[in-house]
Amino acid sequence: MELEINQTIHYFPDNLAVSYGAGDVGLSLKQVMAFLYKDNQQGLAVAVDNQVIARADWSNTFLKTKDKLLILTASQGG
């Protein structure tokens, strides 16, 4: 499965995909975030195709090939 993440193409193995509806197959946003940020997912915000997704909805947000993700990380500064 091909996803664009922060303007870079990433490929995910097809065996990670799950069925989520009327014959649709994809990856959950939660799966992708766990794969990319294994140990620390604090302070992350995600938009899929310009739509911000609340963390509570990551599990039931399914991605399809060619989706565009923007992942932002909060940081301290002054």
Automatic annotation (TrEMBL):
It comes from Arachidicoccus rhizosphaerae. Pfam families: ThiS. This is Thiamine biosynthesis protein ThiS. InterPro entries: Beta-grasp_dom_sf, Mopterin_synth/thiamin_S_b, Thi_S, ThiS/MoaD-like.
